[in-house]
Amino acid sequence: MKNVNIYISIILFTVSCSSNLPRAEQQFDVNSQEPKKIDENTIDSFSQDNGIQYFMDGMLFLEQGDYARAILEFQESIEKGSNSAEVYFSMSEAYWMIQKYDKSIFFAKKAISLDQKAIDYKISLGKKYIALNRYSESMMVFESIIETSPDNADVLFIIGDLKAKLNDIDGALVYYDEAYNKDNSLILALEVAAQLAYDNKHRDASKLFKKLLLAEPSNSEYLRGYIETIQGSNILNELKELIQNEQIKANPFYNNLYNQMALEFIKNRQFSDAENFLRKALEEREDDRFSLYYLSLVYREVGRNDLSLEISRKHSKFYPNDKEGYINSAISLISMQKYEEAIDELNIALTLYPEDFEINYFLGLTSYSLNDYLNAEKYYMISLRLDDTSIASMHGLAMTYDNLEKWKNSDDLYVKLISLNENDAQAYNNYAYSLVERGEEIDYALTLAEKAIEISPNTSAYLDTIGWIHYKLGNYSIAKDFIAKAILIDESSAVILEHYGDILIKLKDVNEALIFYNKALLIEPDNKTLISKIEKYENQ
Questions:
Q1: CB-based burial of residue 516 (10 Å sphere; 0-12 exposed, 13-18 middle, 19+ buried)?
Q2: pLDDT in tens, 144-169
Q3: Residue burial 159-195, b: 16+ Cβ < 10 Å; e: rest
């Protein structure tokens, strides 16, 4: 028997909730400092006549943006004997503004040598190195600051940025986290750390997002990031902990905790638990798209196609432009053998997405089920145009060609399928059945069927095929054994039951044959061939 694989299963996809935290790329503006006021200590560093006026004039020109004249005044101040760190630092700033970077750094170092306690001078020098992409030198400057000022959160943050620029991810995360620990108002440091960890798939990403979430329980992006980054065997416990957190219940993204719990249960095929959490999500928000989609899949997996259809139609009601609702409805209807209704759902989706692979594939499948082989051919060919690697579409089109008696086309597809996968049992089986049904190359058909059985020995359709080939070869006892085994596996196939009846006729067991013909007729009450056989042998 030709095997029709519907290719319907739960397809797990990542919840469309990627993290979009603001990426804080620390901006280093070396000229961001306001000009320092000249205090008494600065004035005291000058002798009565050693250049204080030149220094003050230089500062005025610096503020006015006349950097060249500022430099001249600072130089004059130094020539008059000034040895103030402030003069050298101001000279550094002026040279920086006219892009004389080497001189700027030289005078910054001079200022630091004169006043080792002036953190501002060191920060300015460190930022200058960063602006020049001299990260290692900058790192040395900022680390020297931390040696004497270990609680400086801003400097810790800058070191974190430097570590990141030097691709030391572990080091960067340590410093970002430490910066936040020193100053909880510096949440930007934690955000940057979490995003860096997320981008690099770092093991600490989840921990950092959780820390953010506990700091701001109502922030949906923090919760989104945390959900995305939870890994390992402890996922369910982590999610349960969040669900029970009263503060997090106010989070706009809270509902997705139920969905994520459900998704984990689906992965483990714990469909009852998944259903419970999806239902909880829908109690909170009846139009939750994720919940509607997955609840429909869950119901279909447990054989509740009626409920699956109900949920997927709700999906379409709330999201009329969403193809998934119509496709899920169609799949449920196909499983219920309501093919015309399935076609209706798929046609709605087709008007919205005429170039969608899935829609065209299922239209091909449904048309085939209605014996509408011309439309089946059309839609399968469209689906292959949209995805020429689709094995399901190739199988569907090959069987369609068989029914249209386009033998050359079907043979070519079966050969292609086997060449793509030498263990494609369905291709071997269907090719064998195609040959035997048209009465060609029966011996070769038997070889193909044997290969299918070798790969998948307990598939009822494959057992039926090899049994039917033996029937065609006149090996009725062998045929009976194979098809009897097929019936033990699947009693719901009218084709297999009819074949068994045909074999029994050849073995002169008419009464037993009629029993199996009638069983087949209960499954396909409109099957004219069966009706004819029953009438023929009942009258004998």
A1: buried
A2: 999 889 999 999 999 999 999 999 99
A3: bbbbbbeeeebebbbbbbbbbbebbeebbebbbbbbb
